[in-house]
Amino acid sequence: MLTLGIDASTQSCSAIVIDTEAGKVVAEASINFGERLPEYKAPQGFIPNGADGEVHADPRMWLDALDLLLAALKDHCDLSKIAAISGAGQQHGSVYLNDSWFETVGSLSPSLPLSTQLESCLSRSSSPIWMDSSTGAECQEIAAAVGGNEVVCAKSGSVAIERFTGPQIRRFYQQNPDAYAATARIHLVSSFICSVLCGADAPIDTGDGAGMNLLNIQSWSWDDELLAATAPGLGDKLPGVQPGQSTVGQIAPFFVEKFGFAAGTPITIFTGDNPSSLVGMGASKPGKLVISLGTSDTFFAAMPGVVADPNGCGHVFGNPAGGSMSLQCFVNGSLAREEVKDRFGYDWDRFTAAFAKTPPANDGKLMVPFFRPEISPRVDLKAPILQGTEAFENWHEADAAMRACVEGQVINIKRCTEWMQLKPEVIYLTGGASQNDAIAQVIADVFQAKVQRLTVSGSVGLGAAMRAANNSLDCALSDLEAAFCQPEPGSTLTPCAAANTYDELIKNFSACLG
Ligand code: ADP
Ligand code: XUL
Fold it and tell me: Which of 140, 386, 402, 420 has its CB surrounded by the most CB atoms within 10 Å?
């Protein structure tokens, strides 16, 4: 049985086809927007040099990419064999459509490109995406209207955030009230692409929907107060909300005729890229935590209940496999580790060797390793805080500095994610720095949990293909995880340090931040 997962990402649109019985990936294709669609002048997937923090993309580019993607995939795979489809999109981005959308999307002709047929449905020619930071004033207005950011966070799972869709919608309404009035439907990237594939207006899922500052995470439905605080008449312009395990349509005749899909192929609701990655990493059940050690560090996990971060730094999204998930970003990730490494002229081997020469908890030497303003927690440091011996505080102890940087980062992740009330059985590591066992060992020691490295490439698309198989073909997620999401052999690390090793350091770290 084959299923298709689509990943409508920032720089590219990708597809992965899995064979659920053989446990294998059978086809992949990807269209890079900058390379394949240079006419949109978006080399990295967005229109450069936006004013006032605006970062937009042309939604017609996403449609052209979908056409190209399926044509490319058809060369590798008989699309009539695909038994179920789902997908995911970059979170927060929004598409604005007039009332011709509903009919047009239901009557697409295979003889014309998608973009040509749907461009007249756009009530806004470009789409703000997650990199947009233009809505500071709108965030404040929304928060003030409902009684403060604590209220926004308790209701929607996040404080009002510039890139989130609600503040973006408010800015559009304020800047262009006529175009807002002419908007009959606002979609997320995920629900827009899903609608096109279904040939019908599709709902938004609770995973991606929670990235809008509009969805109530207790009821998982649009929050009337947040809608009213954002823009007038907004409730009528949004599609419905449904959980991740929902079938929302069948592949439209356009795709059957043009690419040879089987008529009636079911489509599972699309979700956001991060919720999809939770599934693709094999971490959709509580107990498994994922830490991605990339340019910045990102932490996400399925949550046992629904609580919002009382400090307003983390996010709660719906978990496409049921329940909820958390996500928290740490700005000072790999770039901070590199700053410390480069300061002493170390390469990664010497950086790693430093951990063998220093003990866990570093004899009390401590670093708050924030080289640039951090968002978890919100601290405006431009240089780290060091505490310990005089030599250490003056950056004369290279090996202790390497360890202190990583220990500070991991302690910070642990403190900042306590609100999620997780009981880690295993922590999956991914991202560039996850190959470093010294860093992985610190994570095992601080969290007192087993750590494993997972090198699932393309976990977003894989998660979508797994969700389609789970929802439409009754494949158990646990079987899919066993086949597609295995940790690297030999990558398991367990805690070496005693459980209380870090108690003192954690206390001192908290004291440093006041
Ligand atoms: P992103 O996807 O965010 O661009 P990656 O997940 O590819 O980033 O991670 C890249 C980072 O991995 C680099 O910035 C580098 O700091 C880090 N990295 C690479 N090799 C190592 C290593 N051996 N030890 C620690 N960090 C490493
Ligand atoms: C999450 C976020 C990004 C986007 C694009 O809040 O803004 O991760 O989903 O990947």
Answer: 402
